[in-house]
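Renewal narrative, Specific Aim 1. Our central claim is that a sequence can be written position by position from structural information alone. The example that follows is taken directly from our test logs and has not been curated for this report. It begins with the structure tokens describing the chain, in the order in which they were read.
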């Protein structure tokens, strides 16, 4: 089925076709997004809360409005795709021997899934209404959440993520910018009220105040975007989260209206449902790439991923992982070696750890890893 322009108004036609393609939410906004979201971004960057995400700074001007990105754009069509999980994502946090992977990364890479549907819809809009179109999914400098709020798809909650009355916290977003003039939908008002569950549940207190997230403290940032060693102050709080964190999303009361995704490609891959840390810690680069083929996790790279797994193992305080961690003390990646040292310090008795240090620290030249071996560095366990 394709778009027909013979009977109905453009918005109705586009909305109907988007739903037929499997999208779960559709909204329309003017391409002139306004200044408020741009001002919030400026403050976020000025405070340095973006951490290693330098691309936010370098392309900040283009993020302020769709017009900044494409001056010819007149309207923005915002599409949402439900990726609601089957079970509570926080359930795995009580299973320390298993790695917690964020819901969004459990199935096929959402960029590919959303983009495929967007391309079909955009092509039909272009052909049916004789207008120009451009599609965007996450990677372009589009302030998706403020735009989705303006288009009536949802609102930005106190955790800064989008919340929908129909889909709760679980919506992937994509946009079609077009030269077609479309009447904007009404913006979605804020329905958070006095609730602050997302703020209270955050293990690292990353939500510094309502609607303001310090990315440098966020576990999703630390395990995905942060390239160096994870700061010591956050390692214990990370628990067994090895790729992202869903706590502030999962705790939202609006999820009572959410349902499991109907998009087959977004259903969790069987090997990525509660993966065992003892299996993950053994992955070399080829096996990592194979294991996470087609998943967003693959873009992280093996070294950062194993760094995260080693931290999770350290949080088990279980010495059954000793031999696997010792094997990593000669890994080519300094971040992996450093995380393995921290984990061994957590699971071994002091004398056992000192014996390892006496041997391996003599072979080490990396300043960061040597700091992890530092004799007078003691964690709370010792």
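The sequence written for that structure reads:
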């Amino acid at each position: 089925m394709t778009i027909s322009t013979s009977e109905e108004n453009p918005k109705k036609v586009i909305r109907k076709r988007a739903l037929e393609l499997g999208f779960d939410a559709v909204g329309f906004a003017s391409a002139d997004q306004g200044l408020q979201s741009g001002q919030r971004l400026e403050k976020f960057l000025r405070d340095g809360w973006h951490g290693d995400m330098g691309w936010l700074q370098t392309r900040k001007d283009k993020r302020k409005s769709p017009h900044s990105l494409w001056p010819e754009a007149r309207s923005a069509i915002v599409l949402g795709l439900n990726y609601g999980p089957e079970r509570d994502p926080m359930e795995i946090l009580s299973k320390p021997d298993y790695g917690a992977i964020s819901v969004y990364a459990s199935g096929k890479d959402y960029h590919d899934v959303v983009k495929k549907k967007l391309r079909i819809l955009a092509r039909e809009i272009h052909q049916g209404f004789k207008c120009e179109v451009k599609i965007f999914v996450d990677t372009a400098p589009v302030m998706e959440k403020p735009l989705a709020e303006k288009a009536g798809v949802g609102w930005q909650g106190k955790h800064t993520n989008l919340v929908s009355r129909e889909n709760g916290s679980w919506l992937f977003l994509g946009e079609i910018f077009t030269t077609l003039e479309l009447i904007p939908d009404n913006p979605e008002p804020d329905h958070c009220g006095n609730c602050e569950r997302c703020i209270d549940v955050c293990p690292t207190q990353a939500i510094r105040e309502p609607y303001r997230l310090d990315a440098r403290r966020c576990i999703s940032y630390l395990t995905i975007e942060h390239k160096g060693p994870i700061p010591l102050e956050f390692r214990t709080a990370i628990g067994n989260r090895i790729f992202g964190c869903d706590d502030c999303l999962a705790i939202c009361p609006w999820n009572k209206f959410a349902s499991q995704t109907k998009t087959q490609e977004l259903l969790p891959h069987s090997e990525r449902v509660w993966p065992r840390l003892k299996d993950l810690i053994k992955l070399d680069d080829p096996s990592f790439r194979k294991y996470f083929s087609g998943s967003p996790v693959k873009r992280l790279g093996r070294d950062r991923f194993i760094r995260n797994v080693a931290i999770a193992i350290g949080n088990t305080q279980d010495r059954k992982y000793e031999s696997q961690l010792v094997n990593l003390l000669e890994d080519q990646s300094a971040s992996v070696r450093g995380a393995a040292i921290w984990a061994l310090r957590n699971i071994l008795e002091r004398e056992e750890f000192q014996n390892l240090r006496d041997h391996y620290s003599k072979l080490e030249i990396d300043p960061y890893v040597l700091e992890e071996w530092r004799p007078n560095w003691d964690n709370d366990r010792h």
